[in-house]
Each structure stands twice: as structure tokens, then as C-alpha cells.
Automatic annotation (TrEMBL):
This is Fibronectin type-III domain-containing protein. The lineage of its organism: Bacteria, Pseudomonadati, Bacteroidota, Flavobacteriia, Flavobacteriales. Keywords: Signal. It comes from Cellulophaga geojensis KL-A. Residues 1-21 form the signal peptide. InterPro entries: FN3_sf (IPR036116), Ig-like_fold (IPR013783). It comes from the Bacteria.
Length: 226
């Protein structure tokens, strides 16, 4: 009887010592570089397209990578799967793209994703518009509370291949799309406070302008004040 109890305890200890399956670690993007012009694409025949090789670091506990790359002009996304840490993809020249990689394994359903990077696929241009500003807060559709001064802070980030952002034009109002210019911010100032009224839906967007006069539009975002 004593031997049987010892055997049961040993089996229980062994079962407890087995670690549960873990999700993959996050892939780290390598190339094309973040906020860059990719000049390594191989032209496809006589078309205005080129083949670009995306690269990233291997992530632990990964059986498959899913690569998502989005044409920022059309918002169309290509999804490609590979077991390698590179992926060749045919892209339009002179167009901005965003991309990221999702890591998967066969043991768990949980996946992990890399950061999202943006780049321009080189074309005939010598200068590029800034990437469209990304809204940080308030998120679109979010309900927020005003502060004690009846203000809400708007926040965004922006990137530019040429590193020559000149200003941000912030449009804000209670109609969509917003047409009232709320503020024109310097390139190092990506926040602005705005007076609001409770139980009201507001719309806003950011137009990023560079020193060459190129511009990009974030698109319209909305939030409700409680």
C-alpha cells in the first residue's frame, strides 16, 4: 500500500512539473526599416511594380508566420503565410505601405504580433508626403470624460521618410468631416486641448504638412463626451 501511494505521488509530481504550452514570442521586424524608403525592390518586367523582400527575426515557439502588408493608398491588405523569416511580395512603386508579422504555433490558439512599421516602396519620386498621422487619443468611437476645465486632450503621432514635417493642422467640430481649423502645431507638438460639452459627439482629424508642401490626412475620428 505504501509503495502504491509513493507511486501515485510520483506520478502526480511529474504531471505538475510539466509546463503548460506557451504562445509564441513577438517577432521583431528588420527590413524594410521603419519610416524609410525601400530602394532594394526588383522591378517586375515593364510594370510599375517591384518585388520587395520583408525580413524579421525568428520568434521563439513559432511554427508559422502570417505577414500582413497594407497599401495605404487603397487600404487593401495582402496576407501571406510562411515558416521562414523572410517573405517576398510584389508592391506598387512610389506607394506607402504598413506591415506586421503574426507568430503562431500548433499548441495554443493565442498568437503574438510584431510592431506595425511603415515604408515607401521606391519609385521615381525624390520627395514623399508624410505618413498619415496615427490617432492616439481619444480612440475613434471612444466615450471620454472632460477634465475640470471642460477640456479633452487630443493626441497623435506622425512619421516621415524625409524627416521634414513642418506642421500639423488639427481640424475639430461637431459635424463630419470637421472643417474648423482648431490649431496649427509645430512638428514637435502632437497634442492639443479642446473645450467640449457633455453628451456631444465630436469629430477631428490631423493633416500633416512637410517642408516641401506635401501633406497627408489622418482621416476623420470621432468620440463622445460624457
Amino acid at each position: 500500500m505504501k509503495k502504491l501511494l509513493m507511486l501515485l505521488c510520483l506520478l502526480l509530481a511529474l504531471s505538475c512539473s510539466k509546463s503548460s504550452p506557451k504562445p509564441p514570442s513577438s517577432p521583431e521586424l528588420l527590413f524594410p526599416l521603419k519610416s524609410s524608403e525601400c530602394t532594394t525592390g526588383i522591378t517586375i518586367g515593364t510594370t510599375n511594380t517591384s518585388e520587395v523582400e520583408l525580413q524579421w527575426n525568428a520568434s521563439a515557439r513559432t511554427d508559422l508566420y502570417e505577414v500582413k502588408i497594407t497599401n495605404l493608398n487603397t487600404n487593401l491588405t495582402q496576407t501571406l503565410s510562411t515558416t521562414a523569416i523572410t517573405q517576398k511580395v510584389v508592391l506598387d512603386k512610389g506607394v506607402a505601405y504598413s506591415w506586421f508579422v503574426i507568430a503562431k504555433n500548433d499548441e495554443v490558439s493565442q498568437t503574438t504580433a510584431s510592431e506595425i512599421w511603415k515604408f515607401y516602396n521606391a519609385g521615381s519620386q525624390t520627395t514623399y508626403p508624410p505618413f498619415a498621422a496615427e490617432i492616439i487619443a481619444p480612440k475613434s468611437g471612444q466615450t471620454v470624460f472632460k477634465d475640470t476645465n471642460n477640456d479633452v486632450e487630443l493626441e497623435w503621432v506622425a512619421e516621415d521618410v524625409d524627416n521634414d514635417i513642418a506642421s500639423y493642422q488639427v481640424y475639430f467640430g461637431s459635424v463630419s468631416p470637421p472643417t474648423d481649423l482648431l490649431a496649427t502645431n509645430a512638428p514637435d507638438n502632437t497634442t492639443v486641448k479642446v473645450g467640449v460639452v457633455a453628451n456631444t459627439v465630436y469629430y477631428w482629424k490631423v493633416v500633416t504638412v512637410d517642408e516641401e508642401g506635401n501633406s497627408s490626412d489622418s482621416g476623420t475620428y470621432e468620440f463622445k463626451v460624457r
